[in-house]
UniProtKB/TrEMBL annotation:
Gene name tied to this protein: bioH
GO molecular-function terms, A-Z: pimelyl-[acyl-carrier protein] methyl ester esterase activity
Chief subcellular location: cytoplasm
NCBIfam families xrefs: bioH, PRK10349.1
BP-aspect Gene Ontology terms: biotin biosynthetic process
Protein name: Pimeloyl-[acyl-carrier protein] methyl ester esterase
Catalytic activity, reaction form: 6-carboxyhexanoyl-[ACP] methyl ester + H2O = 6-carboxyhexanoyl-[ACP] + methanol + H(+)
Length: 257
């Protein structure tokens, strides 16, 4: 099996695995790792095909989850942002005994809008797929800009995400297309209803990619989970509101101990 890039830091007695979103890499967590590494043993991962985890093609969600899990500690809190939230959720479904708690950030069990379910219109995702082959870097930058729209620090937040992308090798078009395919087709709404482990869902009220309309629907669908909405955040609350974000994780850890 090919290796993925994996870095462990911090000396907390609780393991926390951080999974980034589409097009990005583990550098996105730089704004919160100093604070969290005093409280957790952090596991920073570049998902297969992203950042420093080169040599992978497009993967289906279960394959991606399997590869990441094979490098992980025996038990940890799994936190996934956006696409990473689907990977963390899939790991919780496949191997619940390895997950002490699941945290999803600005993520949806079904990113694609369908019927009365709010999400990204399939045509928008298909458009991104088409544009990737035409102007690869501009498409990724456009997607990053969408993630911070509406926040007080939008320009600065978008720059931070862009720097994380540009600091490392860009993923292959095939890998990015595979990620968009996961966002377009995966639906874990029903499967996650059966989870019994601690489950925290974090959202930004201004998020244009994961509409806040889905929050009360999932509260009803998954009464065993809890939700937290950051009022002035968009799709990257850990970038725009790092202190509040870390506080929420420390509160979760205190409940688990």
């Amino acid at each position: 099996m090919k290796n993925i890039w994996w870095q462990t830091k911090g000396e907390g007695n609780c393991h926390l695995v951080l999974l980034h979103g589409w097009g990005l890499n583990a550098q996105v967590w730089d704004c919160i790792t100093p604070e969290l590494s005093s409280q957790f043993t952090l596991h920073l991962v570049d998902l297969p095909g992203y950042g420093r985890s080169e040599g992978f093609g497009a993967l289906a969600l279960p394959q991606m989850a399997e590869i990441v899990l094979s490098h992980a500690p025996q038990q940890a809190i799994w936190l996934g942002w956006s696409l990473g939230g689907l990977v963390a959720s899939q790991i919780a479904l496949q191997s619940p005994e390895r997950v002490s708690a699941l945290v999803t950030v600005a993520s949806s069990p079904c990113f694609s809008a369908q019927g009365d379910w709010a999400g990204i219109k399939p045509a928008v995702l298909a458009g991104f797929q088409q544009q990737l082959s035409e102007d690869f870097q501009r498409t990724v930058e456009r997607f990053l800009a969408l993630q911070t729209l509406g926040t007080e620090t939008a320009r600065q937040d978008a720059r931070q995400l862009k720097n994380a992308v540009l600091s490392l090798p860009m993923p292959l078009t095939e890998v990015l297309n595979g990620g968009l395919e996961i966002l377009k087709t995966v639906d874990l709404r029903e499967a996650l209803g059966g989870l019994t482990l601690p489950f925290l869902r974090m959202y930004g009220r201004l998020d244009g990619l994961v509409p806040r309309k889905i929050v009360p629907l999932l509260d009803d669908m998954w009464p065993q989970s809890e939700s937290l909405i950051f009022p002035k955040a968009a799709h990257a609350p850990f970038v725009s509101h790092p202190d509040e974000f870390c506080d929420a994780l420390l509160a979760l850890k205190a409940r688990l101990v």
